[in-house]
Structure formats: C-alpha cells, structure tokens
Design brief:
The complex is a heterodimer of chains A (461) and B (239). With 461 residues, chain A is α+β, with helices and mostly antiparallel strands. Chain A is built from 17 helices and eleven strands. Chain B has eight helices and ten strands. The chains are: A alpha+beta (461), B alpha/beta (239).
C-alpha cells in the first residue's frame, strides 16, 4: 500500500466516471496524435516532393538568386565542371551528396509554327539521368510514391518534356495523346502569319531527319548571351502535369546541351545552378557550410541556397500546419484539463469525510494533496496510454485503407498516411504532456482537499 | 511519551479553554472556559446532552481543532505551539481516533485500514503487517483481514476502527460516541472490547457518550453542559 496503489483503487471507486474521464483524455491524445501524424506525413511528403524536384541545395553565382533570373548569361557559372569536380572530390561532402547536377534556367518563346501558335515559356536545361535519380529520392521511406519512367534520356539531346497547359496552347494535345484536352474556340485561333524571319530561323534549325522521329517538334526562341535571337528545335517526348497552372502553362524541360545551345550558341557554355541532392535532409546545414568553405578557400564567387529559400511555400506550409496543430493541441489540452479537474473536484466533494479522517489520523496536508495529484496523474497516464494505443491502431488502419488525397500543388493523388513515429517526439511528447497536464489540472481540487479544516471535514455528511 | 507518562501523571490538561464559533456576526461559545486534567491510562468519559460541547471538547483534546483561548496540553505539549504539519505528526504519534461512523477507508481492506497509521509513522511493510494482524486478532477479526468495510457489519467495522486506533500504540485514544450507530448488544460488546484493550495497552481512553453502559466502565466522568464543566467524578479503585 502506497500513494500510487491507493490512488489506483480510488480512481476505480467510481469506475464509470473514471473510465469516461480516461476516454476523454484518450480521445484528446488520439486527436493530437492523428493530426500530428497527418501533419508529419504532409510535411515529409512535401519535403520529399521538393527534394525530388529541386534537390536540397543550389549553388549560384553570387547575385543570381536576387538579380539573375532573367539574365543567365551574366549570372551563369562558367567553369562549372571544375566546381562539380571539387564537390565530388571533397571528403566531407562525398558521403553526404547523392546527386550533383548542373542546371540552366531560361525564358523564351515556344512556338508550334505548323499550327501557327506560340507561348512564352520557362525552361530548364538538365541532365536527364541525374534528374531521374533525384526523382527517386525517398529518404523517409514514404509509402505509395510512384515514379513515371522519364521521357528524357542523356543521349537524346533534342528531346524534352512540356507542361500540359503549354501542350494545349501549342495545339499539341492530339499528337501527344493528352486526354481531356479542350480545343480552342475558332475565334481564338490566331490566323496571323508567323513572323517570316522567325519562321525562317526555325526552318534553318530544323533537324533533317526526314520524318523518322515521330515526336512533335516545337521551336524555342530566346535571346543569346550576346543579345541576338536564337532558335532551337525541341522534340516533345511527353506533356506532363506540373501541378500548378502557371507552371503547367509555361514549363519546358530540355537537355542541358539544348538549353546551352539556345542561350549561349557557339559561345562559352555556362549553367545557372549546380543542384545538390543529399542522402539525408539532416545533413543540409553541414553540407551548406562545407560548400561555403570550399568556395571561400578557392576564391569562387558562388553562393548556396537551400530548398526552403528556393521554395518559400515550404516553410509557410510547415508554419501553417504547425499553427493548426498547436491550436488543436491547445483545444484538446483545455478539454483534458477541465475534464480531469471536474472529475477530481467531484471526487474531493464525495470524500470530504474521508479527507477529515485521514487528517485526524495524522496525514499531513501535503499527503492529502499528493494523494489526489496521484489520482489525477493516473487518470492522465491511463487515458493518454489508451489514446496512444488507439492512435497506433487507427493509424495502421488508415495507412492500409487505400485512401488517398491530392495535396495542393500535386499532380497526382498520394496515399492518406499517418506517420506517428516519423518524428521521435510526437508520441512521447503527447503522452507526457497529457499526463502532466492531467496531473496539473488536479492541483486545484487537490489543494482544496488539502486545505480543508479537519473538524469541518469530519462533520460533513 | 515515556512509559512513566503513559502510566501515571496527566495525559491531557485543559486550562480555561474557550472555543467560540462565529456565525456571521454572532459568536457562539461551544466551550466556555473548561479546565480539566485527564490522568494517564484511565478510561475517561465526557457526558452531556446534545449541543453541550462534548464533541468540541474532544476535538480540542484530539488536536483537530484549536482553542479560541486557554491552553490545551496533550502529553505535555502545548498544542498551540505546533504548526499544522507538526500537529499532524503529533496526532499520528500520540492520538488514536474511534469515530461514531467508524470512518474506515472504503478502498482498503480491514488489515490495510489498521495498517494506515503505521504507514504514516513510516513503519516498514513487514512490521506494519505483523502489528496490524496482531491487533485484528486481538479484536477477533483475524479471519476478516482481507475484507473491505462494505463487506462487514457495523460491529465488525467498529472493531477494525478500534484496532486502527490502537495499532500505533498511542498515548491517548479518543472515541466520539462509538456505540451510537450500533445496536445495544453490539455496543455493549464493543465497550467491553475497548475496556479490555485499554487495560491491555495501558492507554488513556476518552469517550464522549450518552450511553449509560459506557459510563459503567469509566474511571473518570466529566459532565459538561452549555460548554461548561459541571461535574468531575473519579470512580474509586479503577485507576
């Protein structure tokens, strides 16, 4: 017989009320854990999506991030092969880096002159095999991720992928077999002849394959580093949904070689960024610091940006879900607090005479207080444990239910996942916090019990 | 308390004790200047009609209520000098209580109820259990040790309460109308038991009661009326 065993017996004195109280705590724990697990899954899915597409770190020529987006030639990295070699050879970075690949971002006009249509585009020149490896990054072991076989290949230097919206605007839906693609109203179709100079330039750049390549061809027009217009032909392998309409309506992914031909012509070839994808996101700060050291030691005028700077929505989404989670946790905490306080207050009221007896027998005020706090602690402990067990079962059921949803910005649905243990803190923190909160919410009734006047308590009927 | 104090000399000394209750602006004197001395190892009884102040007097002696004025000295200690914690410890060490409604802890078995004062005194589990069982045996309830109060009769509960009051070997046991909730036969048996236990433990027993059967066993009788001690009588040859 000690305080805890006595508390255990006391809480089951009114078993129904105590079970209801524990269930209230359990439901609070369940709600916090399920939402926390859902948020965890969203954050990790979102991070995985970003890291697959943009990597962890981008190396830019200093100033590109703020001023160079429209001027790749002025803010390009000229000797990027040496920089990549330095990264590859560094003994600190080597075990951290999964993929290091060059990238060239450019803007221009995409035209399907055969259909007499054109559209400004946002293009990325990339190394297809590197990007394919990046897209398979899944450091968190998320379930249900799917990869579509890439339509681009290293040896296909004229091939590329465009957004669904751009395909629609360039009248390529039929040739690219795009489903559910609306046809433009007749009045909207431009019958204005294409500028003869541009058409001639495009014709001059057209590959002489005598129709052997069945893929539709579009022409990409951009200004070269010297300011002259330049045109290259892109064989469109596939149209892919980019998730965001603005991006979908303008996106062109092409081989790095083609992008460099378009921007730099026969001049010195540069890239706008070196993209690094790490094995683990946890190495991000260390890798960034190491890169900055290497660049400083070698006198390279380069800067490093991480993915949260490149995708400002990422910290915003995390912040938003963190706020919602905090809000829900506070509401649940308040419910638990009042439920326990109410139950323990009732218990104190029912046991006034007993409190008087214990005090008469020689129990100190602190002993009475400790007794009721122990009962609140046990109610919280059992309730929170019940909630954790329920959450684990519910998460298992949810994760195997086959339910899916399409997050904002995603082009395809993803499994509805609850990741309870991805964050080491979520379950223990919820469990401990609710137990502590339950104990603390007993303070008021426990103090009330401890302060009772012995004779008044003994007189109570 | 030493053995010499336990067996001889006063265990309780009240000097001009006044206890007043305030009901709004009205002051109600429950004890209006009582002075008395209770000798150790005696069977003392406080008698008086309802509302006479005998329970208040018992509460003052039991150190669970404080006097408005006057001095309450128990086992040689002026209880006004003790803070709440020391007063609690003092009660645990020196005083046992037997209540009219038994006041057993319902979630504890009979033996655990008897053990409880020893738990407060910090006695080790093995010794607690042995002493509690010995007391239960002495009150004839060894075979009921595992039962909870709601599984026992009124007489049995009061026997457990007597064992609980005595288990810590207090200097003073206070019983507030201990037979009031028992039938006359059981009440008589309980009085016999308490008297026997008092004689065996050489502990001072103080009762408040209306029950003439209790008075028959008394060594000292104190009659109280309207908060005043109106009679103090020693029964010869018992002490």
């Amino acid at each position: 017989m000690n305080t805890l065993s006595l508390a255990f017996r006391n809480i089951f004195r009114n078993a129904r009320r105590s079970i209801m109280t524990m269930m209230a705590v359990g439901v609070g724990a369940l709600a916090i854990l399920m939402f926390g697990g859902f948020v965890s899954a969203i954050v990790l899915s979102f991070q995985t999506f970003i890291v697959q597409n943009t990597g962890h770190l981008h190396v830019y020529k200093r100033g590109y991030f703020d001023f160079g987006a429209g001027n790749p030639s002025a803010y390009g990295i000229a000797d990027y092969a040496k920089v990549m070699q330095a990264i590859a050879d560094d003994p600190v970075l080597k075990p951290m880096v999964a993929v290091a690949t060059p990238s060239l971002t450019l803007f221009g006009i995409a035209g399907n002159f055969a259909a007499n249509t054109s559209k400004t585009f946002f293009g990325t020149g990339l190394v297809p095999s590197d990007r394919e490896r990046m897209r398979r990054w899944n450091a968190y072991g998320l379930q249900g991720l799917t990869w579509r076989e890439s339509a681009m290949h290293d040896d296909d230097r004229d091939g590329g992928v465009i957004g669904l919206g751009l395909a629609r605007m360039l009248s390529l839906c039929a040739t690219l077999n795009v489903a559910n693609c609306p046809t433009p109203p007749a009045a909207e179709t431009s019958d204005k002849p294409v500028d003869q100079d541009i058409a001639a330039l495009a014709a001059a750049e057209a590959p002489q394959d005598n129709g052997a390549d069945p893929r539709p061809r579009i022409d990409l027009l951009a200004a070269t580093a010297g300011g002259a217009p330049n045109v290259v032909n892109l064989r469109v392998a596939r149209a892919e949904n980019q998730g965001i309409k603005e991006l979908d309506d303008a996106y062109v992914a092409m081989h790095l070689d083609l992008a460099q031909r378009l921007v730099f012509g026969r001049g010195e070839r540069k890239v706008t960024a070196l993209i690094l994808q790490l094995h683990r996101s946890g190495d991000l700060k260390a890798a960034q610091a190491r890169l900055e050291t290497i660049f400083r030691d070698r006198g390279l005028d380069l800067e490093v940006r991480d993915f949260s700077q490149l995708t400002p929505m990422y910290p915003q989404v995390i912040g938003m879900f963190g706020t919602i989670f905090g809000f829900i946790a506070v509401i649940m905490g308040v419910i638990v607090l009042f439920t326990i306080a109410n139950t323990m207050s009732m218990s104190v009221m029912e046991r006034i005479n007993e409190i008087g007896t214990l005090r008469a027998l020689g129990q100190r005020r602190s002993g009475v207080r400790r007794q009721f706090l122990a009962e609140g602690f046990l109610l919280g402990l059992f309730g929170a444990t019940l909630g954790v067990v329920a959450a684990i079962l519910a998460a298992q059921a949810m994760n195997h239910s086959g339910l899916s949803w399409t997050p904002p910005g995603n082009s395809a649905p993803v499994p509805l996942t609850i990741l309870l243990f991805q964050s080491r803190l979520l379950v223990p923190a919820a469990w401990i916090c609710l137990t502590v909160l339950a104990t603390l919410s007993t303070l008021f009734p426990a103090n009330k019990a401890a302060r009772m006047v012995v004779v008044d308590a003994l007189r109570h009927v | 308390m030493t053995d010499s104090v336990r067996n001889e000399g006063p265990v309780v000394r009240l000097d001009q004790v006044v206890k007043e209750y305030h009901m709004g602006t009205i002051v109600v004197p429950a004890v209006a200047g009582v002075s008395l001395t209770l000798q150790a190892a005696r069977f003392s009884v406080i008698v008086g009609p309802s509302g006479s102040g005998k329970t208040t007097l018992l509460n003052l002696i039991g150190c669970i209520d404080g006097a408005t004025r006057g001095t309450v000295e128990v086992c040689g200690t002026d209880i006004a000098t003790l803070n709440d914690d020391r007063l609690s410890d003092f009660r645990a060490r020196h005083i046992g209580f037997i209540f009219q409604n038994f006041n057993l802890i319902p979630v504890l078995s009979a033996i655990e109820n008897v053990e409880y004062p020893l738990l407060l005194a910090g006695i080790a589990k093995r010794e607690r259990r042995a002493r509690a069982m010995a007391l239960l045996d002495a009150v004839g309830l060894a075979d009921q040790a595992r039962r909870r109060p709601n599984e026992m009769s009124g007489g049995q509960r009061q026997r457990v309460a007597i064992a609980r009051a005595l288990v810590a070997e207090p200097d003073l046991v206070l019983a507030d109308e201990p037979t009031a909730n028992l039938d006359s036969r059981t009440g008589a048996a309980i009085i016999e038991l308490m008297h026997a236990m008092q004689a065996r433990a050489r502990t001072s027993f103080v009762f408040s009661t209306h029950d003439p059967a209790v008075m028959e066993h008394a060594d000292s009788i104190f009659a109280i009326r309207d908060g005043l001690l109106v009679e103090s009588r020693e029964i010869g040859g018992r002490a």
